[in-house]
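hey so u asked for the seq, here:
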Amino acid sequence: GGVRHATNNTYQQTNKVLLLVDLEPGRTLLDLAAFRRQASEVLGVDVDVATPDMLKEHIRAEALTQATPL
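ran it, C-alpha cells below
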C-alpha cells in the first residue's frame, strides 16, 4: 500500500507496506528484522514490520481493527 505524508506543506506519495505479524514461539527480533528485509526485497518497496505488543495501546487497538489477515 502507499503511504502519503506531508513534507514542507506538500504531500508526497511513498510506497511502503506496513505488516503486523505474530511471531511463532522461539522467534526473536532478529527473525523479525530478517523477515522485514526479505519482504522488502520480494515486494520491491520499503516494509515496516511490528508485532501487536510493539505498538502503543491506542495505536494497537486501531491497527488490529484495520488489519487484514493474510
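Helices lie at 29-43, 57-66. Residues 37 and 47 are 8 Å apart (CA to CA).
lmk if thats what u needed
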